[in-house]
Amino acid sequence: MSRSVKKLTGLVAATFTPLTAEGEINLSVIGPYIDYLIEKQNIKSVFINGTTGEGSSLSVEERKQLAGAWCQYGRGKLEQVIVHVGCLSIKDCQELARHAASIGADGIAVTSPSYFKPINADALKLFIKEVSIFAPDLPMYYYHLPSMTGVAFDAADVLNGIEQVIPSFQGVKYTGTDLRDLGQCVSYSQSHNWSVLFGVDEQLLGALVLGAHGAVGSTYNYFGRVVNQMLAAFDDGNHMQARALQFESMEIITFAKNLGFDVAVNKQVMSEVSGLAMGPPRLPLLPCPVLKAQAIAQKIKDFSQGH
Ligand SMILES: CC(=O)N[C@H](C=O)[C@@H](O)[C@H](O)[C@H](O)CO
Ligand SMILES: CC(=O)C(=O)O
Predict the structure, then answer these.
(1) Over the stretch 244-303, which tens digit does the pLDDT of each residue have?
(2) For ligand 2, which residues put their CB under 6 angstroms from it?
(3) Which of 40, 113, 184, 280 is the most exposed place for a label (fewest CB within 10 A)?
(4) What residues form DSSP beta bridges with 109?
(5) Which atom of ligand 2 is nearest to the CA of 15?
(6) What residues contact 95, with CB distance under 8 A and at least 6 apart?
(7) Residue 143 falls in the annotated catalytic set
(8) Which one of the ligands is nearest to 15 CA?
(9) How far is the CA of 199 from the centre of ligand 1 (A)?
(10) So what's the ipTM on this one?
């Protein structure tokens, strides 16, 4: 890679995709959304078009327009805009990677394809490589997401030796609960100065103990400010305080899960907490009953007010 890399650390919001009532992407919300994240949540980096952003339900053209808007409005405000380019077709991934480079994104991430699946970690490495060469100057992150992709090889096996085939490789976003594998990713990443970002918000403290450098998640959209306090407490060695904050976030997420917490519900919760109009989800997700979102949003507001 020709330019020096800004290491990705701290909390990164996995953003929602604003839609109009008619279900079209609503770029007019992106500017206010960025201001909200920075001013109200102390969040300075975003991960767009991922699971939370319903990336797999968007067309390639819509994904490009969204990435363009996030980079344009985020310039001079956000520290990093990471564009998720994972798709079922490698051609689409490559097109999105090339586009991300052309608009000045700070990095790209790719999930494993999940219809035809790679038969082993080497096949997946090859897939990631063939995407990365369309954006050779952009940091590339592997997005490990076995719960959605069904591809559950150890992420550590994907990382092992990947620097030899992908010079731009820069780390992993780890959305899984296997702490052995996570720890091995951190261990391997140390000598390469890569970032390991954790993606299970309700378990972040455990990942920090193992050396994760930050986190990418949906809940940082609306309680990132408080989770930043957890990171600060952990860095200060105040484990009691860090644990108390993680317990509170766990309680909210458990409450939400018991009510049925999919991306549609999560999106409506974001609208309720932030006041930004995220709009409906896209099919096959169904709109969430407002009362359900309001019950979760109330817990989040109480959590934020308490800190
Ligand atoms: C599978 C999935 O989308 N996980 C998200 C990010 O990786 C998380 O941020 C969850 O939304 C969060 O941990 C709540 O369970
Ligand atoms: C949560 C996350 O990282 C995603 O939306 O893809």
Answers:
(1) 999 999 999 999 999 999 999 999 999 999 999 999 999 999 999 999 999 999 999 999
(2) 14, 47, 50-53, 199, 216-218
(3) 40
(4) 84, 141
(5) 5
(6) 60, 134
(7) yes
(8) 2
(9) 6
(10) 0.94
Among the atoms of ligand 2, which is closest to the Cα of residue 84?
6
CA nearest 36: which of 79, 78, 81?
78
Q: Does ligand 1 lie within 6 Å of residue 221's CB atom?
A: no
Query: What is the C-alpha separation between 71 and 66, in angstroms, rounded?
Result: 9
Q: Rounded CA gap, 202 and 303, in Å?
A: 14
Q: Which residue pairs, CB below 8 angstroms and at least 24 apart, start in 239-243?
A: 242/205, 242/208, 243/205
CA of 290 to the centre of ligand 2 (A): 23
What does the pLDDT look like over 30-58, one tens digit per residue?
999 999 999 999 999 999 999 999 999 99
Q: Give the CA angle between residues 260, 266, 269 to the nearest 5°.
A: 110
Catalytic residue among 64, 173, 267, 299: 173
**Tokens found for residue 179:** 């702490």
Residue 107 pLDDT > 50: yes
Asked if residues 189 and 195 have their Cβ atoms less than 8 Å apart, the reply is: yes
Average pLDDT along the chain: 97
CB 250 near ligand 1, within 6 Å: no
Residue list, annotated binding site for pyruvate: 52, 216
Cβ neighbours of residue 166 under 8 Å, at least 6 residues apart? 125, 128, 129, 132, 140
Report if pTM > 0.95.
Answer: yes
Distance from the alpha carbon of residue 176 to the mean position of ligand 1, in angstroms: 10
Selected catalytic residue, list 141, 143, 188, 222? 143
Q: Which ligand gives the minimal distance to the CA of 201?
A: 1
Residue 2 has pLDDT above 50, yes or no: no
Burial class (CB in 10 A: 0-12, 13-18, 19+), 245: buried
